[in-house]
Design a protein that fits this description.
single chain, about 575 residues, 22-stranded mixed β-sheet, 11 helices, about 25% helix, elongated
């Protein structure tokens, strides 16, 4: 069907519409150019004025779209003015944080032009930052001690943004120190904030990053701990304010170098930690309280399949650093951040403690597997401690794969002495589960033993610990070893001393036939150079020793005498060989 030619009236309408479009295009271009010049002219001055001369800004290209009232800035750079910064540092009026930000693309949409031009405030629908590199420097307090005293003109401009988006950003948080500058790396960070608003009157408390709600996602977080060989890392972090939730994967604390390298330059005894939390989840976080009052309140935390490895090397020189004030409840009390976690759930974890003996030079390990439990009332907030000052830890699992173990700790919160108690029950332990460890730590091999149940009710503080200890067992038999090896590389056994020990010194059963059960009361004074768990271990060791051995002094005396006998024999043998060699050398 052939197209009909427009009639005269239609032609007039088309001409008018075309003219209007042309006029709007020309006007729009001129207006856009006008606003573009306004932006270019006002942006640096506005930043300098708002920051009191502390910051400068540049943007290589500016694009304006009047239809959706948007501006796109390319290659934006915001950085501290070096002259102002040095002057502020010199007179201690510096801010605690300085920002150096590079943004390849910054888009702002639905801008209220009249507010932008008038300078009374700013509002927009979307503020989108793409692939920024953000470098944050935190200065020492001493450099900003006079900052609050300096009189500053208060701005009456408020800023409101409906939707803030930060896409694929990398953030470095540097902490300036005298000797080093620790760096916290947030890799591939995405942030989405709803109804972001800055109120110059200061009514911003309790809002999630100044917004009604938001989500923060970080693909990877890395932090090399200063003055150590450790790194802390986390993957897939997500903070969701609407759901009051924080989740993370692969939370790790471990060495950045090998164990061998660490021991080469280690100057004193210390534990090596390798900690892995595959999943971390915190629910019902009070974000409002965190941002308004700087208090971290969490209802529940879940740790699943945790793996903790601790290695202690006793071959290194003694550590003369005092460990007073480092019990769990004392460390909690010293946290600068007020914290309250109602419950912490542990599910199916594994803990391995290993020690390199200074006597044998070998490594022995004990393992706690299938560890699960509940920790309640983790807090250092005084008013909460006044109503409940007991933190409880209830754990159960397997000891060295087969034996069931349960431990209930009670820590007195807010107590300067670190008062605590623990009740432990271990059941069904066989000799083969602890034989290798006993040989490494004590030079005693356990040939046979069937332990039905061991209980320890212990209480103490940073000065001492005491317990009521009981171990029910039968058929115990040991071999006392020498600090020597035979031609096959096996540790030599002291047969005579072992015979005496098994038949005259060692209690083979508890209770012995026709006798009551033996219960031991232990008491150990705290070694201020040793850890919290060392105090528990020493009470446990004392309880086992006094439950199984009639008189430990006899074993020490017999071992000493036998060593002297062997040494005497060795000296005589050496003299005999020397005499033979002299005779052979004579012509």
């Amino acid at each position: 069907m052939p197209l009909r030619k427009p009639n005269k009236r239609t032609k007039i309408v088309l001409i008018v519409v075309s003219a209007i479009v042309l006029i709007l295009t020309v006007v729009g271009f001129r207006v856009a150019h006008h606003y573009k010049s306004i932006v270019k002219a006002k942006l640096p001055a506005a930043i300098e004025k708002a920051s009191e001369g502390r910051y400068k800004i540049s943007a290589k290209r500016v694009y304006i779209n009047l239809l959706n009232r948007s501006i796109i800035l390319k290659d934006v750079h915001l950085w501290p003015d070096s002259t102002n910064m040095q002057k502020s540092i010199a007179d201690s009026t510096a801010q605690r944080h300085y920002y150096d930000i590079r943004i390849p693309k910054l888009k702002v949409s639905s801008i209220m032009w009249d507010e932008l031009v008038g300078g009374t405030g700013f509002s927009c629908g979307l503020f989108e930052i793409t692939k920024p590199n953000i470098d944050i420097l935190k200065l020492p307090k001493a450099l900003s001690k006079n900052y609050a005293k300096k009189k500053r003109a208060l701005s009456n401009n408020d800023i409101s943004i409906s939707d803030v988006q930060l896409l694929n950003g990398n953030i470095k948080y540097r902490i300036a120190r005298d000797a080093d500058t620790p760096v916290l790396n947030f890799i591939n960070t995405n942030i989405a904030l709803n109804n972001w608003k800055y109120d110059p009157t200061g009514d911003n408390k309790g809002r999630f990053l100044l917004s009604d709600d938001g989500i923060v996602r970080v693909d990877s977080f890395r932090y090399n701990i200063p003055k150590s060989d450790y790194r802390f890392s986390v993957n897939n972090i997500e903070l969701n304010s609407a759901e009051h939730k924080l989740t993370a994967l692969d939370m790790k604390l471990g060495l950045t170098i090998s164990t061998e390298e660490y021991f080469k330059h280690a100057k004193k005894e210390s534990e090596i930690y390798d900690i892995h939390f595959p999943t971390f989840e915190a629910n019902n976080i009070a974000w409002e309280t965190l941002f308004a009052d700087k208090k971290l309140l969490i209802e529940t935390v879940y740790l699943n399949h945790i793996n903790i490895n601790v290695l202690f090397n006793r071959l290194l020189p003694d550590n003369a650093d005092s460990k007073r004030g480092k019990y769990p409840n004392q460390l909690l009390d010293k946290l600068k951040l007020p914290i309250d976690i109602k419950t912490l759930h542990v599910n199916n974890g594994e803990i391995v403690y290993s020690e390199i003996s200074d006597r044998t030079g070998k490594k022995g390990s004990i393992k706690f597997s299938e560890a699960s439990g509940l920790i309640t009332n983790i807090t250092n907030i005084p008013e909460l401690i006044d109503s409940n000052n007991i933190c409880t830890v209830k754990l159960n699992g397997k000891f060295n794969t087969y034996s069931t173990i349960a431990a209930n700790f009670r820590f007195v919160l807010g107590d300067k002495k670190g008062t605590f108690s623990v009740h432990t029950v271990l059941k069904n332990l066989q000799a083969h589960q602890i034989n290798e460890q006993s040989k490494v730590f004590t030079m005693i091999a356990i040939k046979s033993m069937n332990m039905h149940e061991m209980t320890m009710a212990l209480e103490g503080n940073e000065d001492y610990a005491k317990s009521k200890f009981e171990m029910r067992y039968n058929n115990m038999s040991i071999q006392i070893l020498k600090d020597e090896q035979d031609e096959y590389g096996d540790t030599k056994k002291q047969g005579f001393l072992s015979f005496i020990a098994n038949n005259l010194i060692l209690f083979s059963h508890n209770p012995m036939p026709g006798k009551p059960i033996r219960t031991v009361n232990t008491y150990v004074e705290r070694d201020s150079l040793k850890s919290f768990f060392n105090l528990i271990w020493r009470n446990l060791h004392q309880g086992v020793q006094e439950s199984t051995i009639r008189d430990m002094n006899v074993i020490r005396l017999m071992r000493k005498n036998q060593d002297q006998v062997f040494s005497s024999k060795e000296r005589k043998e050496e003299k005999r060989r020397n005499r033979k060699n002299k005779k052979r050398r004579k012509p």
